[in-house]
Hints:
Elements: H1 3-6, H2 20-27, H3 41-62, H4 70-81, H5 89-112, H6 125-135, H7 142-153, H8 158-165, H9 173-200
Helix pairs in contact: 2-3, 3-5, 5-6, 5-9
The chain binds ligand CIS.
Ligand CIS is lined by residues 3-4, 7, 26-27, 29-30, 33, 44-45, 48, 51-52, 55, 92-93, 96, 99-100, 103-104, 107-108, 128, 132, 136, 139, 144, 147-148, 151, 155, 209.
GO cellular component, one term: membrane
Subcellular location: Cytoplasm
Function: Accelerates the intermembrane transfer of various glycolipids. Catalyzes the transfer of various glycosphingolipids between membranes but does not catalyze the transfer of phospholipids. May be involved in the intracellular translocation of glucosylceramides.
Amino acid sequence: xxxxxxxxxxxxxxxxxxxxxxxxxxxxxxxxxxxxxxxxxxxxxxxxxxxxxxxxxxxxxxxxxxxxxxxxxxxxxxxxxxxxxxxxxxxxxxxxxxxxxxxxxxxxxxxxxxxxxxxxxxxxxxxxxxxxxxxxxxxxxxxxxxxxxxxxxxxxxxxxxxxxxxxxxxxxxxxxxxxxxxxxxxxxxxxxxxxxxxxxxxxxxxxxx
Length: 209
Ligand code: CIS
């Protein structure tokens, strides 16, 4: 069975509001995936994503009825924090988490679209580099860009990556990519909705770390 389809994102309602509890439950399955990638460099990324999720969950649990959507959290923090906002609390954690989610979206879409380095068809560096350049690079100074280059060298082979997405089972590449495409439908809509919310609320920042 596909790891992705075991933990699918749900279809959004017509107003495209993202349910906080469902969102947190779904993204909580992402960090453990890094353990199958086989290099300690991924533990830095795992811990960053875990930290984001933990921070958003801590705010949500203070008042689940009030924070039923992600937008309710971001708006409540805007009203509570004045000039510090949006570089604060769950608003900041979600700002970074959505960038990691966009990275995953572009990487998976690129694989599903069959983009590959014809000279090295079993490498996924072209797909990873595309995702990095579009989702993260502009938010990274040279030290973090160096971590990226190290992670790129430690990236799994395409065949091993697809196998990990299939829970270690031998699944035909076409079947695995079909699962990826199915997973991407609601996933992409959700990530787009979070980006749109940040734009509409003027909550996006472009500083680099
Ligand atoms: C397959 C190989 C992939 C290679 C990936 C290379 C990626 C790029 C490497 C960049 C290194 C990043 C190291 C961390 C940098 C952080 O400094 C930076 C800024 O952090 C933020 C905090 O998050 O800083 C803020 C202050 O300025 C705050 O401290 C904030 O924390 S807060 O607010 O919570 O306190 N962070 C980043 O730049 C984000 C980096 C995200 C990188 C995401 C990379 C994802 C790679 C995924 C590869 C695997 C894809 C597999 C696809 C799906 C698997 C899912 C399986 C489970 C299914 C679940 C269903 C959903």
